[in-house]
Amino acid sequence: MTFRANQREATAPAEPNGRVPRHVAIIMDGNGRWAAERGLPRTEGHRRGMEAVRRTVDAAIDLGIETITLFSFSSENWSRPAAEVSFLFGLIRIFIRRDLADLHRNGVRITVIGERANVPADIVGLIEEAETLTAGNTRLNMVVAFNYGSRGEIVRAVRRVAEAVKRGEIDPAAIDEATIGRHLDTAAIPDPDLLIRTSGELRLSNFLLWQVAYSELVFLPLYWPDFGAEALRAAVREFASRDRRYGGVAARSGA
Ligand code: IPE
Ligand code: IPE
Ligand code: MG
Fold first, then answer.
1. Protein residue whose Cα sits closest to atom 12 of ligand 2
2. In sequence order, what DSSP letters do the residues of 151-190 get, joined into one string?
3. N or C: which end of the chain has fewer CB within 10 A?
């Protein structure tokens, strides 16, 4: 992998008014259709998708984004043919083995969210190795949502809260939004400012349902293997043009 962290591209600034989202979450979708349009097997789309991940991490560092969350395998993706599931698992193995050292050298901290119970033991080992090695890095937080589903995450959080109530550690009357947030996989991670989905689909597919309550949503018509620095910059520009009101009144309304 060739990280270009120290060579900012000599193009126009990322977006006009200097607002860079601190946390960008991405639903990396469209690998299969990218391949099908070229008469290639879906697996080739996934392989090229991994290259897009590398470009995107580079671009996120260039832009000064603090956290990037990538949806790499959903709890619903188990319903795909077994051969495709094992190819995707093979890719995650290759990604960690091949790219971990570079990511670490470039100051990337890796965190993996999702259910680990039904993940092959060797992948759990690789995930733990990546998280431990990079735990002290601060340049970019790379959060990988692997075997992740938002409703399942909320169920696990509720179960943990219920257990704490049972132990007498939490008073049910004191449960608030922060209590729930602290028990999600994303406990230590601020909510996404910007959510991007590629492939043209206009849905969340069970991704970060709690966390995107006030994220800006950008849906791009390109397939994930075609994503890179340019598309990320375009999405960040779109983000910068939005008026985040959080239920209040427009910042520009001069009230
Ligand atoms: C995204 O691409 C990758 C994963 C979900 C793992 P898809 O494989 O969903 O590609 P499409 O959406 O079928 O084109
Ligand atoms: C969402 O894409 C999951 C990932 C990108 C990992 P899918 O392709 O699985 O979503 P649907 O099936 O189109 O909703
Ligand atoms: Mg898809």
1. 205
2. HHHHHHHHHHHHHHHHTTSS-GGG--HHHHHHHSTTTTSP
3. C
| Number of structural domains the chain divides into | 1
Annotated catalytic residue 122: no
Q: Is 205 in the pocket of ligand 2 (CB under 6 A)?
A: yes
> Residue 115's domain is classified under what CATH number?
3.40.1180.10
Q: Is residue 3 part of a domain?
A: no
Query: Binning pLDDT at 50, 70 and 90, where does residue 5 land?
Result: very low
Q: Determine, yes or no, domain membership for 61.
A: yes
Average pLDDT over residues 128-146: 98
pTM given for the model: 0.93
